[in-house]
């Protein structure tokens, strides 16, 4: 399975491309924003596509040609304003969903926020509410897109070393999870068709990742 990783130069994305390239059943195509980012992924043996999410659907769709799945790991980051949140976390996600449809790619995995419910929007601080709102509507768009989707809601992201053990369910208690383990959860979801049409929260726990994903 060839997988387009959107936001490959992010911290989850880099782990994900590395894990995919070390998996005999998967092959990565890294979608990145800058030419100077290419060498990192070429050193992993991954194909690259230099595309900015602020470009049009047709440009993103060209990057998705010939792949079997799309994983959206991109984000505007914590140091940008609501404008970039709308352009990347909402519009960029929606354009990528539409690009997948345009390119004939059915499998789509979205990395969302831990809680994107209407209640979470109302409870969020004024600075965080635009992000939760963007993720909420991107998730809703994906659910209505007639794609084989999986939506992953990770807990508080850390840069700690992954343990390979998580707790995953439609709802779990809020907790931390290393980005490295989120990447492993994505790989397990790609390999398990039972995750199609499902969304789940995931945090560090005591179950091996494949076991946790199978039990969702």
UniProtKB/TrEMBL annotation:
- The NAD(P)-binding domain sits at 7-192
Q: Which InterPro entries match?
A: NAD(P)-bd_dom, NAD(P)-bd_dom_sf
Pfam families from the UniProt entry: NAD_binding_10
Would you tell me the protein name for this molecule?
SDR family oxidoreductase
What species is given as this protein's source? Halobacillus amylolyticus
């Amino acid at each position: 399975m060839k997988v387009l990783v959107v936001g490959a130069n992010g911290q989850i994305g880099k782990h994900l491309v590395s894990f995919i390239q070390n998996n005999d059943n998967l092959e990565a195509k890294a979608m990145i924003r800058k030419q100077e980012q290419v060498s990192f992924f070429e050193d992993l043996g991954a194909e690259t596509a230099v595309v900015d999410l602020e470009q049009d659907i047709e440009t993103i769709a060209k990057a998705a040609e010939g792949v079997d799945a799309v994983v959206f790991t991109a984000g505007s980051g914590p140091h940008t304003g609501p404008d970039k949140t709308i352009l990347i976390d909402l519009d960029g996600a929606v354009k990528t969903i539409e690009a997948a449809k345009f390119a004939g790619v059915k499998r789509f995995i979205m990395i969302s926020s831990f809680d994107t419910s209407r209640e979470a929007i109302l409870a969020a601080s004024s600075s965080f509410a635009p992000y939760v709102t963007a993720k909420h509507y991107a998730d809703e768009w994906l659910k209505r897109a007639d794609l084989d989707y999986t939506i992953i809601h990770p807990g508080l992201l850390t840069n700690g070393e992954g343990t390979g053990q998580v707790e995953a369910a439609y709802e779990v208690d809020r907790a931390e999870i290393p980005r490295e383990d989120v990447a492993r959860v994505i790989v397990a979801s790609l390999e398990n068709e039972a995750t199609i049409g499902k969304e789940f929260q995931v945090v560090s726990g005591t179950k091996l990742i494949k076991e946790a994903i199978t039990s969702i």
